[in-house]
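User: Hi! I have a protein structure encoded as tokens and I'd like to know what sequence might fold into it. I'm fairly new to this, so please keep things simple.
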């Protein structure tokens, strides 16, 4: 499948580009990120380049994983890069991260809504989400989008050390979206 761009008034979701690599490396070296993502640590430039050049295109081609760069519209160059979102189709589930300078603006929730809307036009299976216990930012996005909290259990995805850390889980169903209670504080 060819990559698909998604748009809203404030966002463009498109493919990560080689010129995004430096900012991706800088953001994924942030100490707070180390324990919440499955990415290699320390994250090096060759990791970003390999991801952009090989992993992302192969994911689209095989239709196993769709990955987008979040770009805040109206901002030119690397400053517009606001994060990443990926949807793995096997389960299906999604994950995301946001550049520090763009956190708290609602851009990630907006991106998740765009991706979910696109997904539900293709497939009616619910979208799963998980994050390591304590990742309040990820919880805030999932709750804002309308995910329903389904509990605390080991992560489905193995982390770089092979472990499955205790994680919060949720699901987003096709249909009207509303905020659900029961989320961890």
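Assistant: Happy to help. Inverse folding works backwards from shape to sequence: for each of the 185 positions I chose a residue that suits the local structure. Here it is:
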């Amino acid at each position: 499948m060819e990559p698909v761009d998604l748009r809203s008034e404030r966002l463009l979701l498109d493919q990560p580009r080689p010129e995004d690599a430096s900012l991706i490396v800088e953001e994924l070296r942030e100490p707070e990120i180390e324990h919440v993502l499955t990415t290699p640590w320390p994250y090096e430039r060759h990791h970003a380049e390999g991801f952009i050049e090989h992993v992302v295109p192969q994911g689209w081609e095989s239709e196993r994983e769709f990955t987008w760069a979040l770009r805040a519209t109206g901002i030119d160059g690397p400053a517009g890069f606001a994060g990443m979102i990926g949807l793995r189709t096997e389960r299906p589930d999604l994950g995301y991260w946001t550049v520090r300078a763009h956190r708290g603006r609602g851009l990630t929730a907006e991106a998740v809504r765009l991706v979910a809307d696109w997904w539900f036009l293709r497939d009616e299976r619910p979208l799963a989400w998980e994050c390591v216990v304590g990742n309040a930012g990820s919880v805030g996005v999932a709750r804002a989008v309308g995910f329903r909290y389904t509990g605390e259990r080991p992560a489905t995805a193995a982390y770089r050390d092979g472990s499955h850390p205790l994680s919060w889980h949720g699901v987003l169903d096709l249909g009207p979206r509303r905020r659900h209670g029961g989320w961890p504080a």
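A useful reference point when you look it over: The first helix runs from residue 21 to 28. Feel free to ask if any position seems puzzling.
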